Amino acid sequence: FSFLMTEALLVFSPETSPLRAFSRKVKVRVHWALQLLALLCALLGLGIVTYNKHLNGKVHFVTWHGLTGLLTVLYTCGQCAGGVLLLYPKLMKNWTLAKLKLYHATSGLVGYLLGCASLMLGMCSQWFTTSVTGVSWYLAMLCPLLTSLVIMNQVSNAYLYRKRSQH
């Protein structure tokens, strides 16, 4: 989920995207496909974990990781629905395409950070901290932290670029 979502957002990066030379239409389609795959992975993971908890008679959604994970999956479903509105902007008659893009990008960043928080909370779980120890734990924790900084930087650069081009 985290890898696919990160790559889906980096598709639009003018500095790091392997699709720099492609049209915006191609980038949007790749973004859409990667986000859909990320959502399917999240739903599959949620289903497997829920089923496993059920089989073992354990309660679910009682930890911060479980609650933020569930919230992330639900939020991602909503964000994907919002993305569909960008494919068909005429469905939103009172909204400009620019406004829809701005809200989708901003709420996408919130969803991405929520996903990173869920991942980091999972790394604080008893199972993970007993399985992964020492330097490995810190390196694992750095992954979502660094990727979230890269994504936040990309979004802020996009806002600055848009603001400069408006003047």
TrEMBL record:
Pfam families: Cytochrom_B561
Cofactor: heme b
PROSITE patterns recorded: CYTOCHROME_B561
Compartments, as annotated in UniProt: Membrane
GO CC annotations on file: endoplasmic reticulum; membrane
GO-annotated molecular function: metal ion binding; transmembrane ascorbate ferrireductase activity; transmembrane monodehydroascorbate reductase activity
EC number: 7.2.1.3
InterPro entries reported for this sequence: CYB561D1/2, Cyt_b561/ferric_Rdtase_TM
Domain Cytochrome b561 positions: 1-162
Protein name in UniProt: ascorbate ferrireductase (transmembrane)
